[in-house]
Amino acid sequence: MEKVKITRFMPSLKQMKDMVIHEVTYFERHNNSRFTVTSRNIPRWGTWINYFRSVPYLYKWSREEEALLPKHYKDRCIEFMRKEQSPVHWRPIQMKYRFDEDSGERIPVVNAPIPVIFPKECNLGLWGGEGIIFGYYKKNVPKKKHKLPTLPRIWHPMLNKSVLYSEILDRWMAIDVTPRALFLIDEAFGLDFYILKTHEVDLCSKLGMTLKREMLLTLANKSFYPNDPVKKEKIYNKYKEFIIPAEEAEWIGLSVDEAVEKAKKLNEAMNPTKPLKEQYLYDLCQKFQVEIKH
């Protein structure tokens, strides 16, 4: 992908107030990039824009549920909620300071990600980390003398139905994908490598995590290509670096409700409940044996 040159965008006082107080996003569109590039240069020391990372699904549980869930599942959930997503709709500025053109003052550069909204529909496809953006677009026309107003606008990803093939699952699937997701799949040399290499935060899709769980379980159990041992060995050696124990793989991508239900079933299987009538019968027999001995 070609490099995008980020131009400096200094917001006006009204835009600064909207960005800090109302968390409004102002950005510019670059013709040489298929993504929207933004940079917020805050001209005051110690000023920061508070934002909350948007996610398509959450991991939240109570204390009773926390006692049931395994540690590796909770660690993955906590990492998902804390880890920042890789920049998709913006490009961070690498340098820490910039110099004001008029005064020459050194001003710290603050990289604030664009607020992205992930609807529920993104869990049914592979969007490659893209989402819906609400913001303002300022159109510049050099021929016009008067300034054009700043207009609100919504940017949404372009979705296409594509048929993708998985070597591990040996299955063709019709999935809603974005052009960026197709680009990442081609960059990773296949759907399987893209799903297995990409972190849950960057996948940003329940469908992607479901496919990852199926792939990891298939690799752990070696249940692929049972009638072709040569291809089975070839696929196993190709993806063996991603193999994890089946006990962990079966928990990947589960929602909290699904994980709690699974943990309850495992707990009941390991500690079966004994009917009270059997317990009373056992206690009665023990009591009679004690009385006979005396």
UniProtKB/TrEMBL annotation:
This is Large ribosomal subunit protein bL28m. The keyword rRNA-binding does not apply. The keyword Ribonucleoprotein applies. One of its GO terms (molecular function) is structural constituent of ribosome. PANTHER family: 39S RIBOSOMAL PROTEIN L28, MITOCHONDRIAL, LARGE RIBOSOMAL SUBUNIT PROTEIN BL28M. Belongs to the bacterial ribosomal protein bL28 family. Keywords: Ribonucleoprotein, Ribosomal protein. GO terms for cellular component: mitochondrial large ribosomal subunit. Transmembrane segments: none annotated. It comes from the Eukaryota.
